[in-house]
Amino acid sequence: MKITGVLGLGKEHTRSTWDQHVDQGHLREMALNIWGEDSSGMMTDFEPSDSLLMKYENNIMNCEKALRDNRVLDMGCNHGLYSYMAMRHGAGHVVGVEPRGLFVNGLNTFADQNDLPMEFHRGYDTDTARLVREHSIDTVMLMSVDDITGWESMMYDIRKSDVQWLIMQVTTLPDPWLGFNEDIFNYAKTGAGMPVGFTLHYEAHNSNTRSGMNPMHRDMADPDTGYQHIGPDGKLDMESSHVIHSLRSRQYMRKFIDHVGFTVESSKVQETPIANSPSRSASNGLYQWYLLRNKK
Amino acid sequence: MSFPTTISVTARVDMQDQFEGFVSNKSLPGARVILGDQSHEHRFTQPGEEHRFTVTADLERGKHDVVLEFMDVAEAQGAIEVLSLHLNGCPMGAVIYQCEYRPFHLDEALQSHLYMGWPGRWSMTIQAPSHENHGGVGFG
What we know:
Chain A has helices at residues 11-21, 24-35, 40-44, 50-59, 64-67, 81-88, 101-113, 128-134, 151-159, 182-192, 250-260, 280-283; strands at residues 71-75, 93-97, 118-121, 139-143, 165-173, 199-205, 242-249, 263-269, 287-293.
């Protein structure tokens, strides 16, 4: 019996494909090199969550033609799991980029120990153009970096490069969330035209695991953990810790992709929210996936 | 089904100014960290000492408290400051401020206090399995 739900291909099929490609020993070793001995218990009988399988299905399984035999750049690779899975699905070489030394150092040790075609570097979104050039990248993965980085700039950089494929996981807001009032229409009549979507900006504490991306205080981030505003006394500066992050509407995202000139190979909106996910996007059903071609 | 979960709490003892007479009679405290049915005890032996308490427990799915408490209730003890928390090896950063501190002699909970000037009980809630419930923990 096919189980349907949050995973478009059926949970059983996705899980079966995961099992065929993952080496549990590798996962334990990755965790050990990143998080140390404290991770051993967690990894003893590790089971991928629905949220993880959903990302795996949409960023890796469904994009295998963009991965196989290609040189892949995983921008904002975090713990490197999807870099690893890209490699297990046939990528010829994977370059993972991430600001946090905790991940970069651990993943390089893991890759070296197992002689895997992966390398990891400390870097930021602003390094994209240089990285795709220096590493002769065919495929770029941008998973959940749209809300915290200069996403549009990255898209321009990738479009102008020799990259062939772009795999994206983004958080997009449904267009009905915002309606336009009379002032918008009046302004349109002056020649401005109607808006092609919207971006919402949120102020938040800059105290989570992605804090190191904040361009304003990047130099104050702990190079290992990425946490910011760690004062000379070692304490977190809760008062000064703020960040603005931005979420784009679905219409704007699509318009921008068209504007830059990518060809949409496939696109999918998250079908069902995932309860109990640590990801706000997943639990609110706001993920969207794109597979784009960079045709010249 | 239970989920093996490891927490590490790093704490530092503060004997305040050793040259001040009013604190010189304070003793170095001992503390224990509790998770599920497991615990780790340590008695500090010198001013300013840092100690990493590590406990692994099999937790059922759901919410559980991480507790750091003084081993003695006597008030004439040095203070203990919680510096950091690692959940399955993952540094949790400012999440430690989502805690409460209950001094033994007060009938109230103080929120977001990491410095325990009085003997008492510090706790915060985690949720098992951690990689499904906490951002930045494991392969979530």
